[in-house]
Amino acid sequence: MRAPPPLLLLLLLLLAACRPPPCAAAAPTPPSWEPAADAPWCPYKVLPEDAEAGGGRLCFRSPVRGFRCQEPGCAVHTSAGHSLRASVLRNRSVLVQWRLPPARARRLRSFVLDCSWRGAYTRFPCERVLLGASCRDYLLPDVHEGVRYHLCLQPLPLHSERAPEAIGPAECVEFVAEPAGMRDIVVAMTAVGGSICVMLVVICLLVAYITENLMHPAFGRPGLRRQP
């Protein structure tokens, strides 16, 4: 059997080297923060601090639709995994939202939302909520101003799930509610400062006008002498 000529081997090597690499798989699109049109109501329980006091009262809330966090009346804080976010509103309420891929959401039975805030020497619990698997948001009605809050959302797998660690760790986010009084003072000082600047400009123009026209009287041009 005759060996292929060297020129043919060279051409084959060049074709193999120039062949384009296979297309990389496109990154999956993250789920939207907006709930689905047919999203059901969210069942939840506010758990008491004392574990022996019972499971709390069952409540329901409708999903929040069309929410947009717009400055300066709202500030967004997102977790490291970009699956949990807290929108701190100006009225000292916080809308907590989370999103999950559909394949992961089908393996969950509920969520636990833990809330705590940091004091001078220790951390205090503020609220612990058990939410159903269909929930994608929760509203904290009232938070303290100037206090750092720590929120963690832990998904709970189905009882039949063999590998609960595959559900993933808890997503956490921290935020500080800005004092509304301080914000109003800053806005008022900005408005007053702008008015003062305008008044100073008008005063400077008025002083310049008075200096040019009133402090230095106009001298008429000397007339021509009559010839005798």
Structure in a nutshell:
By secondary structure, the chain is of the alpha+beta class. The protein has three helices and ten strands; from the N terminus they run H-E-E-E-E-E-H-E-E-E-E-E-H.
Question: Portion of residues in helices?
Answer: 10-25%
Instruction: Outline the low-pLDDT stretches.
Output: 224-228
What is the count of helical runs? Answer: 3
Tell me the major beta sheet: 6 strands, antiparallel
Order of helices and strands: HEEEEEHEEEEEH
Shape: elongated
Name the strands of the widest sheet in spatial order: 2-1-7-6-9-10
pLDDT average, as an integer?
A: 76
Count all strands and give the number. Answer: 10
Distance between the termini: 137 Å
The computed structural class is: alpha+beta
Integer-rounded radius of gyration: 35 Å
Tell me what portion of residues adopts beta-strand conformation.
25-35%
Set down the secondary structure blueprint.
Layout: H1 6-18, E1 42-47, E2 58-61, E3 74-78, E4 84-89, E5 94-98, H2 102-105, E6 108-118, E7 123-132, E8 137-140, E9 148-157, E10 171-176, H3 180-213
Antiparallel strand pairs: 1-2, 1-7, 3-4, 4-5, 5-8, 6-7, 6-9, 9-10
Notes on the structure:
This protein has 228 residues and is α+β, with helices and mostly antiparallel strands. Helices cover 22% and strands 29% of the residues. It is built from 3 helices and 10 strands; from the N terminus they run αβββββαβββββα. It has helices at residues 6-18, 102-105, 180-213; strands at 42-47, 58-61, 74-78, 84-89, 94-98, 108-118, 123-132, 137-140, 148-157, 171-176. The strands form 2 sheets. The protein has a 6-stranded antiparallel sheet with strand order 2-1-7-6-9-10, with no helix packed on it. The protein is elongated. The model is unreliable at 224-228 (pLDDT under 50).
